[in-house]
Write a sequence for this structure.
């Protein structure tokens, strides 16, 4: 008997008792539906968290400063309440010298090529020729490496371009008089800052190349490309004494994430007299917290599947009893025990298959409808256009279907074994 | 002629120790190719057990069964399954059809098990249905057929693989005499035309009488074999008269068997005669049935 025949026969036999089979499939459906919906939420939230992590520079991103800055950063991050801190001359924000920069470059695990020194200039305001209003803004260039930011229009500025480019924060295009995010792309905006010594206002025009999507963690303001950053820094510090214009307070870099955890590399930096801030300092434990909740829901789905598996055992046992004569005839006509086993095992697997496929289909319908609903005006995720609550993909659907089929097969082995070991004579005599 | 079935010292015991029941006690038997053999006996005599063992549906406790010279007791399950599938055909009293499947699907079953190709098995099944005169019912649901038609479908299923041996277990047991006759005619047709060995288990003496040879089982023992009787008689005759002409064993069996007395001529093998004789027998069958009901 060919496998295709076995498959066809099994499916045919399965739907002979439609009510019983449908109810069993329904039980499997409930279990797999729960798990698939959970997996979809998990995927949705995780990709959003990934997106946020990437917008902070990625998991291998570090902001390194001298050790003296550590306490100041810590006191800014904590809520206070410990009273005034006593002055310590060793614990002030201090710039880094050449020697220190070389030291960072030579630390094992730090990618020397990725080291980038941000040259921040405080911007007074941003405006455009479409509005009289002026708005405050923070700008910064992209940290080195694989840096991603979700966009509602356009994309990131190009660091290799000589053109001055900017990716605006959410809501800025409308404030600046553009009709939409799309409308702002390709248009010019005006950035105004002061000469650091003379306080003369300096104007720079930049082309809008993108608009950021709203995220849960704050991206460091609007993003400009390196040529604009360099030009503005040069213009703002042109009256500085030479030695002072070169002061470096923070260094951005990437570490070898395959070899070190963020905690380990921070320790290494600390041992060398530096203080570093990584993604986990900014993201906190959102992911860990979320994963824990998801595991609880997965367990619920698993329990539902277990109950469904017992349903499969029951259904197939009844089926074996009902079809005792048929099995006897099949065996009398030369069907091997193995094929009988295979036929019943296939029925079990098909139960799992149909149950999980219906689970996927319904979960998909509900998920996509919910995604549309939460992003609609008034929906609770309206402000996060890139946050898909449910994310479906082959990578999360297929393994679940396969696992459910496997569970069904395991549940089916006992009845299938019983069927396979029926004696044709006893089976044909059975009344 | 070589025997197609050789049974030697066959013993079948059911159960163990105190509950043990010996269903068959040292049966010895040879059946030739193309022979039609009736195994008769009361219910519980062991006749069905004997058929099941010969049909390799069950394994004997002791003794050997050779099919075409191959010792079946030495074959593995796979070979046994293959042998049953390719060389045997089965007709049962209770039909054993899959009632929800179509007639064609039911006939196809053995070919499907054999792993034959879709097109080939369809053709063969339609041919078999034509032989039993039910080609126009191929698409019908098996359940929608009458009892006689069901049994004819079962015969189509039994002959679809062109078996060497056709086993029929009380083939007319659930049928009235008229439809029973049709079924019997089909069985003997296959036996005569294709030269297949036919083994019928029955307690109907009229049906048994149509066979070349009758084997009577009682209490697990073979108490009568028409062929041996004939052979004995023949050897006696030879001693007395020392006959000049020698006839083959089977011919002797069919001509000189006392059970065949009802068949008018020695050409009992030709199916037309079988059919005729069956008409004559139908009356007796009917009266028997009537008695049974009363």
């Amino acid at each position: 008997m060919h496998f295709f025949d076995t498959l066809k026969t099994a499916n045919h036999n399965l739907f002979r008792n439609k009510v019983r089979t449908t109810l069993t499939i329904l039980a499997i459906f409930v279990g797999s539906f729960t798990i698939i919906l959970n997996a979809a939420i998990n995927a949705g939230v995780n990709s959003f968290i990934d997106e946020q992590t990437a917008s902070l520079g990625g998991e291998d991103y570090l902001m390194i400063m001298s050790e003296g800055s550590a306490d100041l950063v810590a006191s800014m991050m904590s809520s206070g309440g410990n009273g005034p801190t006593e002055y310590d001359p060793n614990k002030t924000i201090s710039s880094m010298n050449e020697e220190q920069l070389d030291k960072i470059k030579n630390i094992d695990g730090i990618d020397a090529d990725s080291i980038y020194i941000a040259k921040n200039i405080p911007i007074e305001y941003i405006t455009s020729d479409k509005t009289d209003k002026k708005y405050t803004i923070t700008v910064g260039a992209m940290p080195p490496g694989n840096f991603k930011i979700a966009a509602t229009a356009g994309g990131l500025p190009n660091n290799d371009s000589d053109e001055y480019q900017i990716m605006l924060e959410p809501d800025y295009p409308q404030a600046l008089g553009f009709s939409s995010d799309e409308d702002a792309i390709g248009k010019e905006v005006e950035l105004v800052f002061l000469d650091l010594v003379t306080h003369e206002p300096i104007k720079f025009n930049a082309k809008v190349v993108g608009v950021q999507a709203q995220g849960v963690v704050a991206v460091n303001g609007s993003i400009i490309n390196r040529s604009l950053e360099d030009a503005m820094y040069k213009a703002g510090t042109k009256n500085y004494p030479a030695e002072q214009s070169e002061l470096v307070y923070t260094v951005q870099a990437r570490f070898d994430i395959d070899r070190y955890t963020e905690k380990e590399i921070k320790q290494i930096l600390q041992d060398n007299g530096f203080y570093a801030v990584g993604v986990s300092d900014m993201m906190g434990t959102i992911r860990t917290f979320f994963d824990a909740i998801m595991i609880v829901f997965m367990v619920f789905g698993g329990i539902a599947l277990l109950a469904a598996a017992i349903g499969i055992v029951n259904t197939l046992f009844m089926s074996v009893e009902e079809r005792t004569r048929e099995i006897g005839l099949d065996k009398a006509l030369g069907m091997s025990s193995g094929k009988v086993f295979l036929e019943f095992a296939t029925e079990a697997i098909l139960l799992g298959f149909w149950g999980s496929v219906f689970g996927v289909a319904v979960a998909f319908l509900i998920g996509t409808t919910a995604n549309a609903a939460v992003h609609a005006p008034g929906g609770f995720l309206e402000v996060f256009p890139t946050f898909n609550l449910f994310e479906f993909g082959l990578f999360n659907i297929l393994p679940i279907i396969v696992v459910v089929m496997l569970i069904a097969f395991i549940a089916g082995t006992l009845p299938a074994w019983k069927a396979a070991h029926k004696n044709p004579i006893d089976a044909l005599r059975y009344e | 002629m070589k025997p197609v079935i050789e049974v030697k010292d066959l013993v079948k015991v059911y159960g163990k120790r105190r509950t043990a029941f010996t269903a068959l006690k040292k049966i010895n038997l040879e059946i030739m190719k193309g022979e039609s053999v009736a195994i008769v006996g009361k219910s519980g005599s062991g006749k069905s057990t004997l058929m099941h063992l010969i049909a390799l549906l069950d394994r004997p406790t002791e003794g050997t069964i050779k099919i075409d010279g191959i010792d079946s007791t030495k074959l593995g399950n796979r070979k046994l399954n293959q042998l049953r599938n390719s060389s045997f055909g089965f007709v049962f009293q209770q039909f054993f059809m899959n009632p929800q499947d179509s007639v064609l699907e039911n006939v196809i079953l053995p070919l499907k098990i054999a792993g034959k190709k879709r097109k080939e098995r369809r053709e063969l099944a339609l041919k078999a249905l034509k032989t039993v005169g039910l080609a126009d019912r191929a698409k019908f649901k098996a359940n929608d057929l009458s009892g006689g038609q069901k049994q004819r479908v079962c015969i189509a299923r039994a002959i679809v693989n062109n078996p060497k041996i056709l086993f029929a277990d009380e083939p007319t047991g659930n049928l009235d005499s008229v439809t029973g006759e049709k079924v019997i005619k089909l069985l003997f047709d296959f036996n005569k035309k294709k030269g297949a060995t036919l083994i019928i288990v029955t307690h109907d003496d009229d049906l048994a009488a149509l066979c070349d040879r009758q084997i009577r089982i009682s209490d697990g023992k073979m108490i009568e074999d028409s062929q041996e009787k004939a052979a004995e008689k023949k050897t006696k005759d030879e001693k007395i008269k020392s006959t000049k002409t020698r006839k083959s064993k089977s011919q002797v069996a069919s001509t000189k068997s006392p059970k065949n007395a009802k068949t008018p001529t020695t050409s009992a093998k030709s199916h037309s005669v079988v059919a005729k004789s069956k008409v004559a027998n139908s009356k007796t069958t009917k009266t028997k049935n009537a008695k049974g009901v009363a």
